[in-house]
Design goal:
alpha+beta, 13% strand, globular, 46% helix
C-alpha cells in the first residue's frame, strides 16, 4: 500500500477500500478477510468493515457457502462507462474480428495504465483452443508482448522509469534484465 502519511486527512479509508478491491486483481478466486488482512497489513476488523461497506454498495459479493468475497457487478457498470468513453476502443472494435480471423489468433488491444498495460478490447481466435485476455486485465509492461510493444514505441526518457526499478519475475521465462529488455525493444522497432 502507498505511504498514507502524504495523503490529505479523511482519504485513508478510501485508499484502503481501493486497496481491498485491488487484492482481487491479483487472483481469479475468492478472498477471505484473513487473506486480505495479511496482504494489506491491516487489522481483520478494518478489512471486515471495508468489505461490508463495499458489499452494501455492490462492489463485492460474499459467497454464502464459503464466507469469502469476490468482485461485484457494480464494478462492471462503472468499467463499462469508462470503456464507452475510451475513443480508442470504439475505433478498433470494428477491426478486431477481421484481424483475429486473418491471423487465426486472439487479438487484444492494450493501453498503458501506470506501470501496467490494460486490455481495453479484444476478439477471440477462431481456433477451438484460444487465449482469452479479459477486458480490464492488467499486466506489468515488462512481461507481456503488448507491454513490450508499448515500451518500444515510447521515447527512451519515458521508458527509463519502467526499467530502472526492480522487475518482478512471474514465470521462469520472465525477462527481468533491463539491458535484455532494451535489446528486445530495439528488435521490435526493426
Amino acid at each position: 500500500m502507498a505511504d498514507q502519511t502524504q495523503l490529505p486527512a479523511g482519504i485513508q479509508s478510501v485508499q484502503r477500500a481501493i486497496a481491498v478491491l485491488r487484492c482481487f486483481a491479483k487472483t481469479d478466486s475468492e478472498l477471505g478477510v484473513i487473506a486480505i488482512s495479511r496482504e494489506l497489513g491491516l487489522h481483520k476488523s478494518t478489512v471486515s468493515r471495508l468489505l461490508s461497506t463495499l458489499q452494501y454498495e455492490g462492489f463485492v459479493t460474499q459467497n454464502p457457502e464459503t464466507g469469502k468475497y469476490r468482485l461485484g457487478l457494480e464494478l462492471v457498470t462503472l468499467g463499462g462507462i469508462v470503456l464507452e468513453r475510451i475513443d480508442l476502443q470504439k475505433l478498433v472494435q470494428s477491426h478486431l474480428p477481421a484481424l483475429a480471423e486473418s491471423t487465426r489468433e486472439t487479438v487484444n488491444v492494450a493501453v498503458l495504465a501506470g506501470s501496467e498495460c490494460m486490455n481495453i478490447a479484444g476478439a477471440p481466435s477462431p481456433r477451438p483452443i484460444q487465449y482469452v485476455g479479459r477486458i480490464g486485465r492488467r499486466t506489468p509492461v515488462h512481461c507481456t508482448a503488448a507491454g513490450k510493444i508499448l515500451l518500444a514505441y515510447m521515447p527512451s526518457e519515458q521508458r527509463r522509469p519502467f526499467l530502472n526499478k526492480p522487475l518482478l519475475r512471474f514465470t521462469p521465462h520472465t525477462i527481468i534484465n533491463p539491458q535484455r529488455i532494451e535489446t528486445i525493444l530495439t528488435d521490435i522497432l526493426r
